[in-house]
Amino acid sequence: MQNLGQSGGEACPFSFNFDPTSFKAGDLVSYRVPDRFDDFPFVGTLLAVHDDHVEISPNDPTMPGKRMRGSRESRPVVHSSEAL
Length: 84
Hints:
The protein has two helices and four strands. With about 80 residues, it is mainly β. Strands 1-2-3-4 form a four-stranded antiparallel sheet, with no helix packed on it.
């Protein structure tokens, strides 16, 4: 993601945490919704980190209180019922 497929070498404007062992609230993560969007990347902010899952904000200004449950892995998986 660093060059975003650009030949000009533009760096990605986001700094993601891909290490689930160091996840903490406030980290930006790239999450997936594979049952609806395959491996398409979405950007979210971790709101809470639990032993077996994370809570993610999709950073949607129209739904500022939205919380999604995701798996605790390098790119968390969120079910479409949580995301949509």
